[in-house]
Structure prediction request, 169 residues.
Amino acid sequence: PRRTSLSSQQSQQGGMRTPRSKAFPPPAPRQTKDVVTPLVGALMENMANLEKTHQEVVKMLVASADEKAALEREIQEVQVQCERKIEEEKVSEERLLEQKAVASKQVAECQAEWEHRAAKEQADMKIKMAEFRAECDRRIQEEHTRMQAKLDDARRKTEAQLDAERQST
Prediction:
């Protein structure tokens, strides 16, 4: 397909054709220079501003990257410290559990020893009580026998005395 300008489209459609030179007269040479010079100056200024902004953005990105790297290092250090602390806590907890087990074992051993001693002392006490009762029973029996002997002796004497008095009368 062939391209057609607006004016040729108008003529094909039955419109009125306007010559290009009349519609857009060429600018005067002096006028172009007056318009282009300030535009070029503004464009140069805008480019300088863009370059300056670009440099600032690059600096901010570099600073941001440095800050990010510093934060990542700090986070990593904190993670290492946390892991170390957790490990220390585990070790500490294990030690406490070991100490608790040792203490429980010692308590159980002491309790068993105390119960053994208490049972032995109770058995010894029963033996001593039995021996003491036996000794008391023996002494009571001896005393009873002695008293019975005295009574029997006193009865014999009394009977002998009574017999003697009867015979004398």
Remarks:
- The CA atoms of residues 155 and 161 lie 10 Å apart.
- The radius of gyration is 66 Å.
